[in-house]
Design goal:
The chain has 15 helices and 13 strands. It has about 450 residues and is an alpha/beta fold. It has three domains: about 25-220, Alpha-Beta Complex (2-enoyl-CoA Hydratase, Chain A, domain 1), CATH 3.90.226; about 230-375, no CATH class; about 390-450, OB fold (Dihydrolipoamide Acetyltransferase, E2P) (Beta Barrel), CATH 2.40.50.140. α4 (about 105-110) links the parallel β3 (about 90-100) and β4 (about 115). α12 (about 280-300) runs antiparallel to α13 (about 305-320). The termini are far apart.
Amino acid sequence: MHKKKRGKRIRLFLALAVSWILSVFAVPAQEIYQFDIEGDIGPNAWRTVKNAFSNAEGMRADLVLIEMNTFGGMVNFADSIRSRILDSPLKTVVFINHNAASAGALIALACDRIYMSKGSSIGAASVVDQSGQVLPEKHQSYMRGLMRATAEAKGRDPKVAEAFVDPDVDLPAIKPAGKILTLTSSEAVNIGLAEAESASTADLLKAEGISNPTITTHRITAIDRIISFLINPAVSGILILLIIGGIYFEMQTPGIGFALVVAIVAATLFFAPLYIQGLADNWEIALFVAGIVLIVLELFVIPGFGVAGILGIICLVCGLAFSMVANDYFNFSISEPGMLFNSFLLVIASMVTATVVIVIFGKSLLKTRAFKRLVLQDEQRSEEGYTSSRPNSELLNREGVAKTVLRPSGKVEIDGKWFDAIALDGFVDIGEAIYVEKHENYNLFVRKKRTP
């Protein structure tokens, strides 16, 4: 009996000892935060990277894993992504699944470790315009500097990184003279740029010695999808058309109606996602608002159509165009080449389209039953029994002077008293003599006094 009890105690002790040893020396589960960079490098990719790294740092992940497949995109957004990766305290590993060209190569170099699937490639980072033409030397020089600095920050050969941009970099064992460097997966591994070839992210984690990972995958939210949809150039063009059309139709109808609501909503949907993405700035929105104010003043306050109206149109167009392009005030060198021209082209084309639609359909649209339901169209006419004041017969045919510009409404002075007045001639300048033709609804209807 005593031997049996002693054996049980020994087995229990051994089990407890083994359990304690395992708990002390066992490798804890590592937290992995994973997200993808696919398609063009632009505002959507930048938003994804910002949100992903914020989440990963918030949960104190052990490693950030990026799966990449891109042919490149906008240099300014690639630089922002590169800087965010370099500034993060978290270890970052990129898995190039097919392509890391141009801006993608820059982002990959910013990561701590690079893995590539078989058949993948990295490189070809010369700066080109939207037609694929290589841009002048100042653009290439900037990109070469980014490549060298990024490679040096991660202990990689800066000359190889520079060769992705500059065909004149001499690397006889790797590339022919005069050619931009692009490396296959095996070539990248052979020169030490990449760690290894991997079939999947699971193989990558095993190569990193991570056997018990807890993987959190970044989710694209509904807000992200809405923003991505709204900053599409085609959608931006439609919103600009609605802004211009809404302002026009509001000016054609009395009071504040549906057309103004459409213009305000369209302007909000145009500027808000661009502001969130870091493209539109406060001064660009203020420039747009100033343009609207100047145009309204020109139409209703200032006689004729001159400096204020022209400045208003310029401010409106520039406010819309500048907000779609990355810039440092009027420095647009950080934006993708050709983007400023394209944004102006989009704004002008949308405004021309809006003008054509207004000319062709404007008057007929104002008379439709559906439009009349949305705006106040009815007038309370005196012949239908409506009245707000009794006519003052004593003022009829009295003479006075315009105290403000009447275009057509304003103020006039008669016998030392000021009255609201409406010019039946359409326009009366300050100081011009007038006479009262009729009095209705608290307003005097006046005409210019004709000099003999």
